[in-house]
Structure to design on (288 residues):
């Protein structure tokens, strides 16, 4: 069994989590500009690497938050886990949410 | 919470009746919203993950922007509307979830041994000290488990699986001379 580090709850057993597939897949900004092949690539094709793999996990039986994990697909070793939108994830999601909330107020 | 100084022998399992639950969501980085909530609740909203505060109510951390408030059933309606009013200007949500939850109490010197049979967490007080809580699995059910005292655990579980969980607990506690007092 994997011991997965939830960025909020700490290390928990794998049974508490659900897997969400490869991380960092961005929806094309303009889907209509894509050919069928490009759209199919976005929808169905994943990198399936041998080695370091960035993936999404949800702490389903715990805090129910999505977060990112970097796992080695050969050794199953988890190199790191990070909050989505944090520095390690390469996305400014948290800042965007903060900004959109600022607008709501 | 703890009514006795020395823990009971064996293990006691009971349903805590007359309880109501509110789910509170707000961004804790909004200082004013948090202050408004704490003023109405009369106690701190736990900022640290997997902890709870006990006062008039128990407030459990559920997520970075989510808490469960457990209080007396007759207080839920008024507290819910006070919170909704006080937080009206903020990006927040207060929901009465009383109908969906059951609170169980597992106490006694063997309480930890019984829970350990179906839980992957290390429940030793060194790791799971009084004041800590965790959403985790117990048996096959998802529960909120809280340590009130090294020999008293509170479990908040979905009503739909509470029958199952009670049967599971009764079975796990049988070798320890389980008692089921009415509360």
């Amino acid at each position: 069994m994997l011991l997965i580090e939830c960025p909020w709850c700490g290390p928990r057993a794998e049974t508490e989590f659900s897997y969400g597939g490869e991380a960092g897949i961005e929806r094309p900004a303009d889907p209509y500009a894509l050919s069928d092949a490009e759209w199919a690539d976005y929808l169905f094709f994943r990198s399936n690497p041998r080695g370091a793999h960035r993936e999404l996990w949800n702490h389903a039986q715990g805090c129910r938050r999505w977060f990112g994990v970097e796992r080695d697909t050969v050794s199953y070793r988890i190199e790191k886990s990070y909050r989505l939108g944090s520095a390690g994830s390469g996305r400014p999601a948290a800042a965007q949410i903060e900004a959109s909330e600022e607008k709501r107020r | 919470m703890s009514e006795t100084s020395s823990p009971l022998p064996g293990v006691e399992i009971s349903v805590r009746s007359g309880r109501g639950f509110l789910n509170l969501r707000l961004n804790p980085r909004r200082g004013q919203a948090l202050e408004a909530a704490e003023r109405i609740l009369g106690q701190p909203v736990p900022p640290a993950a997997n902890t709870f505060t006990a006062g008039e109510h128990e407030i459990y951390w559920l997520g970075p922007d989510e808490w469960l408030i457990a209080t007396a059933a007759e207080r839920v309606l008024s507290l819910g509307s006070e919170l909704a009013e006080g937080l009206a200007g903020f990006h927040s949500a207060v929901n009465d979830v009383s109908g969906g939850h059951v609170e169980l109490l597992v106490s006694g010197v063997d309480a930890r041994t019984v829970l350990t049979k179906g839980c992957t967490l290390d429940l030793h007080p060194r790791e799971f000290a009084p004041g800590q809580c965790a959403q985790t699995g117990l048996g096959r059910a998802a529960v909120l488990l809280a340590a009130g005292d090294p020999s008293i655990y509170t479990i908040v579980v979905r009503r739909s699986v509470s029958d199952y969980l009670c049967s599971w607990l009764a079975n796990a506690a049988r070798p320890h001379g389980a008692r089921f007092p009415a509360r």
